[in-house]
Amino acid sequence: MIPLYRHGLAVASPKPGASAGVRVQPAATISLHGARNGTGSFAWRAGNGGATDRTPRSSRSAHFAEGCGEAARAPTTDADMLEDIDTSRKVDLLNLDNQQRTVVNRVALALEDANDPNLTTAALLADILRTFLGTHTSVRLLLAEWDRRPVVAADAVSLVREQIEKVFLVSLLLSDWATYVPVYFEEDWCRRFRYFLVQKKERNHLERFREFFQSSGPELLEKQRRRLKISEDIRDLIEFQVAHCQAARPNHLKAVRVPRLPTPKAIVDRSQAAERPALLRWYEEYRGVCGYTHIGADKLQMTVMTGRKVNFSQEQQTGFFTKELVELSVVVSYIACAYTATELLSRTGGGLEPMAEVMKLWTALLDASLVAKVFWEARSASLLPLAGL
Hints:
Elements: E1 2-4, E2 9-11, E3 30-33, E4 41-45, E5 63-64, E6 71-72, E7 90-92, H1 93-114, H2 119-143, H3 150-153, H4 156-175, H5 177-203, H6 207-228, H7 232-243, H8 264-269, H9 276-293, H10 297-305, H11 314-348, H12 352-368, H13 370-378
Antiparallel strand pairs: 1-2, 3-4, 4-7, 5-6
Helix pairs in contact: 1-2, 1-11, 1-12, 2-4, 2-11, 4-5, 4-9, 4-11, 5-6, 5-7, 11-12, 12-13
């Protein structure tokens, strides 16, 4: 038996040349056309035009709502959906890409113009928002390869983990920038310093690295440490841990703590009551993509479907690609970006123009995605004055 992991189905290995013994209804009509550089247009139907399998699911708790191809995770908000999306509606992802780009650019500029609460924090938040576009482009490039190299497209969902982590990072920085903006830069220095020491142990005796590891590298890192006001004890602790990785700490370093940002779960636990239901729901998305990224069975599915031991039809492969890879990667990427832009804009009291662009992106997503409806109703609708118009 060959597991169809994501859908909780099992199909008998077919004879050579025969099709697999299970029919998976495609979730959407997908057409790829235009340039093969990731900018080609996806014509994507919102939801599933036909019935979906109602059999038990696999290790992830997601299930497919009847008449919709999107994975509806275990709800963490109190409201149940009363209205479905139009499953016959086509969504052009190129248009969504353009709308997303406009939103990011307008909101990032609004943040930098406001300089609130200070120049460093505003610039950091604007740069984090801009990185949504780079990661999203990588997702699109991987998905564009699916018809030529399907297994490459499987990595698109893994990249969405980074998009969701930005949701938590921005929430944390907005909640207490005075504490966590310094920790953000301190943790980054500690990570780079530690890796510098690891490489120094390995390469110190090579002539071409000697000057860097003995002179210019330590001088640069020490200069950065002093500017960030990181204590000598933290520096000494990292040096001790790298040099003696299995040894107990000496007494004078036992109380030293290396700066670290909270995990997503810890961010949820310390979040404000108004945002916590939405963050709890984001945490369910995060758990799902983490399990996928850690080489869960879901990630192997495309490799199985295109392997030589079984013979899945093109229809089955397209159905899996649409339901699992497109909707759980590129669509969630759009939503994470829109959610974060809304959070940032609400803190700046941004102008009417960026607010209108954010609302336009949300409108397109709400027409196409039930997952978008969840986050819109849980949080973002309350932050946009235009939402009530």
